[in-house]
Design a protein that fits this description.
heterodimer; A: alpha/beta; five-stranded mixed beta sheet; elongated; B: alpha/beta; Transcription Regulator spoIIAA
Chain lengths: 314, 122
């Protein structure tokens, strides 16, 4: 039994229609953006050029581009991104594309703060284009007003940002979950070092969650190996307070119930003094100062003796 | 193995040499535990050969606090009539539950199986 960080996915749960409602985007707003398309498209390269000038003022952002080649690739993808934005065809494929971008940002570790900054910069540029267009529209019979254009652009930009940020968070949660699982497996390496003898060296900090993982891992190992001896080496544990001491005692009690004698080894003089000062009851717990002593005891309890061979050096 | 020393509503009670084995069924309740308790106490009191009782928990996959307390009381009662107490075949989940509940079972030995526990008791 292991505990883990729950994986929550929100971005993938909504349809295009639901998101349009959530961001108060009307089909007419998309029509307005599509109406801008022919005149805005030739200016995308200019917008992206401004974007890179803006980015040049923020070296922390430039650090995410490994090479000239990767920058050219990203530039090309940005052109595709904004062309798609101007197509304003918000369907399942559009949502998938935006979510994928969020996942890429999460993978490369691009902070959301930078993404929002970039979006904000491009939004300003698009508003500039909209202003130019409304000046041209004034001569038409039913001109599109700047306010309507701004509302349309803002709606879709916010939808994009929402999708990308949410999938960024989901991806980071997933990566965190995977890392947590990997760390969990590494943090409880219960090993049968000899027939009927289990060893678990603990390094780092023990908290309630880790102690629960340790207990589960050890008890499962005892069940499968039918081990009679278990050595818990805590020489790599920096701090032992009342809670940690009680966790360790609980683990030894549980192993005893399953017919496995526990020894806590690696108790330094400092830790020993701390445990006594804390008033933790350790009468029922078998302890040794070194893992070597614990191994010696466990071998003896199993009727095994260690002898120096003829090749051994004194 | 000898034939059963006593019969139970569910589960089983039998003796091996001088040890009485009480194999508890899963999902036992306090009523059944009372019956088991009475049979164990009766057997230990009347059969002077029996000097230890091993509670086999291999069938137990879940247990609540109420039943755990009842089991604790049965063990204490058996100890009072002079028998040594052993536990065997406790699963990881039950072991963790017992420890986390803070209940200290009055046993002298716990083993992987009946033979293991009997070896520890004698």
């Amino acid at each position: 039994m292991t505990t883990s960080i729950p994986k929550v996915s929100v971005a993938g749960e909504h349809s295009a229609e639901e998101l349009m409602r959530l961001y108060r985007i009307q089909p007419s707003h998309l029509e307005v953006i599509r109406g801008m398309r022919d005149q805005a498209r030739p200016r995308i390269n200019g917008v992206i050029e401004h974007f890179y000038q803006w980015m040049g003022e923020h070296p922390a952002m430039m650090a995410f581009f490994e090479s000239e080649e990767s920058m050219l690739h990203v530039r090309k993808m940005q052109t595709v991104y904004w062309e798609r934005f101007l197509d304003a065809n918000v369907d399942a494929e559009y949502l998938r594309d935006r979510r994928r971008i969020g996942e890429i940002h999460a993978r490369i570790g691009l902070p959301v703060m930078f993404y929002i900054g970039a979006i904000n910069m491009v939004y300003d540029e698009l508003k500039g284009i909209a202003r130019d267009l409304t000046k041209q529209e004034t001569n038409k019979q039913s001109p599109i007003h700047l306010e309507e254009m701004d509302q349309s652009l803002a709606g879709l930009i916010h939808l994009d940002a929402g999708l990308i940020c949410q999938s960024f968070v989901d991806k980071r949660d997933q990566l965190l979950h995977e890392q947590s699982q990997a760390v969990m497996a590494m943090s409880t390496p219960v090993t049968e070092i000899w027939d009927g003898i289990l060893l678990l060296p603990i390094v780092g900090i023990i908290d309630s969650r880790r102690s629960e993982d340790i207990m589960n891992a050890v008890l499962d190992a005892i069940k499968h190996s039918k081990a009679k001896e278990f050595i818990l080496d805590i020489s790599g544990v920096g701090v032992v307070d009342t809670a940690v001491a009680n966790y360790l005692i609980s683990i030894t009690k549980a192993t005893a119930l399953m017919g496995c004698r526990s020894t806590i080894s690696g108790i330094s003089p400092a830790i020993s003094k701390t445990i006594i000062q804390l008033g933790v009851e350790t009468d029922d717990v078998n302890t040794t100062s070194t893992m070597m002593d614990a191994l010696g005891e466990s071998f003896a309890n199993r009727g095994l003796t260690i002898k120096r061979g003829s090749k051994g050096k004194k | 193995m000898n034939p059963p020393a006593a019969s139970l509503t569910a589960g089983s009670l039998f003796s091996i040499r001088r040890t009485l084995i009480a194999k508890l069924p899963n999902n036992f309740d306090s009523q059944l535990l009372q019956a088991i308790s009475s049979e164990i106490l009766q057997t230990v009191s009347t059969n002077k050969e029996i000097n230890s009782v091993v509670f086999d928990l291999s069938n137990i996959t879940t247990i609540d606090r109420f039943d755990l307390d009842a089991l604790h009381d049965v063990m204490k009662a058996v100890k009072l009539v002079g028998a040594r107490i052993g536990l065997c075949s406790i699963g990881p989940g039950i072991a963790a539950l017992i420890v986390n509940s803070g209940i200290h079972l009055p046993h002298q030995a716990a083993g992987h199986d009946i033979q293991d526990t009997m070896d520890l008791l004698h």
